[in-house]
Design goal:
With 80 residues, the protein is mainly alpha-helical. It has one domain. Helices cover 52% and strands 0% of the residues. Helix 1 crosses helix 2.
Length: 80
């Protein structure tokens, strides 16, 4: 299983700084740059759910946003 430190290093190295990127593009970049193992590719809840590595990247991005390490574009969902 790829650990958070490895995911974070890949994000820092391969995702452009000071440029907003859609989550789908971030996930594509990470997938192309890290060798994912069998455990990373497993789905946690059901075969139709996201693989573990995707969930881990999302969770890591949320945590980094909360701590101020990165900035996220504000969501427009909910009627803004």
């Amino acid at each position: 299983m790829t650990d958070n430190a490895t995911l974070w290093r890949a994000l820092q190295k391969y995702v452009p700084k000071k440029t907003w990127m859609p989550l789908a593009d971030i996930l594509t970049t990470v997938r192309s740059r890290i060798l994912l193992d069998k455990e990373d590719l497993e789905c946690r809840r059901s075969p139709s759910s996201a693989p573990r590595w995707e969930s881990n990247v999302r969770r890591l991005l949320r945590a980094k946003t909360r701590t101020g390490s990165i900035r996220a574009r504000k969501s427009t969902a909910g009627g803004g």
